[in-house]
């Protein structure tokens, strides 16, 4: 599998279209400020890994971008549209161009896999049932699930199959950008590696932009083109794995140079280093 740092070298030469732009965003709950004038860009065609300490606000930013949490200040532009200025019709078009995989899959337990994948189709499109069935089966095949998984309920699936079914639903409308919240959590190392490879393959074949909230060091190394680190309510540093290894921030050092990260340090040696944070 191609290393993320090698793909990053290719991405540098490509046009840097900003798909998601977050500027000076502040989010709080009561008297507690979780994000304070945070800024971040996500570029077209990249897989961005978003990391930070537990409770730092990674999921808060994700849910704010998705419109599930209201921000107190700042602007968010998604797919060339300021979300504060978007009309209902424009917001619907944006919703159709994005897909979301929540941490635990969030599949509807009373629906089969096929029916779960068809939920976005039913919400946004007016398609005959046979065509929806055909499209859903295509997504099932795309994420590597067996065809007979279509008629199974979430309770009948393994953890890895739930993740793939949820990813198939996120891809139901052929989105431009996909948001993944801890996609490999709960998976064994082999299953997590397979899922990372699947995400990278889908990015390449479908031209996706991927925003991935993760704690998985292997995902950061093998799947992500760039990494953004959240700390002190803002983005501390962003760049390649090499940039993370050069950063002197205490948390970043502990995360990327700690005992569990030694394989990242070894794998990154020999690649071009970026700017320090």
Give the SSE layout.
Blueprint: H1 4-13, E1 18-29, E2 32-43, E3 47-52, H2 58-65, E4 73-78, E5 81-82, H3 88-96, E6 98-101, H4 113-124, H5 129-142, H6 159-170, E7 177-181, H7 189-206, E8 209-213, H8 217-222, E9 226-231, E10 234-239, H9 241-246, H10 250-257, H11 262-268
Parallel strand pairs: 3-8, 3-9, 6-7, 7-8
Antiparallel strand pairs: 1-2, 1-4, 4-5, 9-10
Indicate the radius of gyration in whole angstroms: 19 Å
Overall pLDDT confidence? 88
Span from first to last CA?
Answer: 28 Å
Give the strand order, joined by hyphens, for the main sheet. Answer: 6-7-8-3-9-10
- Beta strands, count: 10
Shape: globular
Would you identify the regions where 5 or more consecutive residues have pLDDT less than 50? Answer: 9-14, 270-275
The helicity comes to 25-40%
- Indicate the structural class: alpha/beta
The helix tally amounts to: 11
Described by strand count, sense and barrel closure, the largest sheet is: 6 strands, mixed
Order of helices and strands: HEEEHEEHEHHHEHEHEEHHH
Strand composition percent: 15-25%
